Amino acid sequence: MRPSVYCSRRVPVPVRVELERLFELELHDSERPPPREELLAAAAGRDGLLTMLTDRVDGELLDAAGPQLRVVANFAVGYDNVDVPAATARGVLVSNTPDVLTRATAELAIALLLSLRRRVTEGDRLIRRREPWLMAPTFMLGHGLEGATLGVVGKGRIGAETARLAGCLGMEVVFTGRSGGLPLDELLARADAVSLHCPLTPETRHLIDAAALRAMRPTAVLVNTSRGPVVDEAALAAALREGVIAGAALDVYEAEPEVREELLSLENVVLAPHLGSATHEARAGMGMLCVAGLRAVLLEGRAPANALNPEALR
């Protein structure tokens, strides 16, 4: 009997083919998440789970799966949706998908920054509304990136790659994070653009609140491709409306997929539907890392390199 694996979402075809080759696979073949009760029922009796960032992997789900569960492969580099200590206590190894989405997410951060600073999305909306326009020396002026200062919050893989790309465009880059750099308040006061790349933890929840936004320059912009709750969206909407900062570009949201109503009507906001890793290459790579994690534990009896809690392997 091949190990039984449940996958909670539709995945790229090459990933599905490999899962079906190696395991007895049950797939929730939809881009929408399964309802909680369906997820709990489908997990029962599985040896492995392939979960998404929107699936809450907690003691309830782990217990519903049963004591034979050995591995949860989380289709994301972040794992704030997974109770890793609860998994470890039950002898369940958890893996994530680092590295393969680094470039894609960094590219999107720069794309959002360019769209915001050069008013690309705002101009797109203007044309789609069929408003009259004509190229003129003072029409829809934005700001370039060369010579501007980018403040990167979080000096991990994605933050470092975003900084590298920004440097290629002539930006000066400053950092803050657990590994050092400027104090956050100094970075906020100095940067022309602030790009968030920190994980969601109790310490980073609402890291960017009303006080942090007031510490930024009135001409500065904020880009968030990390996790929605890192930003206090109510405070951000007020700051944008009142001109405390010049603009914001968001790929993630506090109550995702819901977006705060006030943000939808503001012209100085660029909104994307969590596209950070949404390239064919990155998503296929993420899926194959999940397959590798499942294979390592269930077929080879070892912890994969991307294990978050290798001590859980039993």
Walk me through the structure:
- Helix 1 (13-22) packs parallel to helix 12, helix 2 (36-43) crosses helix 3 and helix 5 (102-117) packs across helix 7.
- The protein is α/β, with parallel strands linked by helices and 314 residues long.
- It contains 12 helices and 12 strands.
Describe, in short, the structure shown.
This protein is an alpha/beta fold and 314 residues long.
Quick tags:
elongated; alpha/beta; 12 helices; 36% helix; five-stranded parallel β-sheet; seven-stranded mixed β-sheet; 314 residues
The portion of residues assigned to helices is 25-40%
H/E series, N to C?
EHEHEHEHEHHEHEEHEHEHEHEH
Oligomer: single chain
Gap between N and C termini: 20 Å
Q: Any low-confidence stretches, pLDDT <50, length ≥5?
A: none
What fraction of the residues are assigned to beta strands by DSSP? 15-25%
Number of distinct beta strands: 12
| Sheet with the most strands: spatial strand order | 8-7-6-9-10-11-12
SSE class: alpha/beta
Radius of gyration: 21 Å
Summarize model confidence as the mean pLDDT. 97
- Count every helix, treating DSSP H or I runs of 4 or more residues as helices: 12
Backbone shape:
elongated
For the biggest sheet, the summary is: 7 strands, mixed
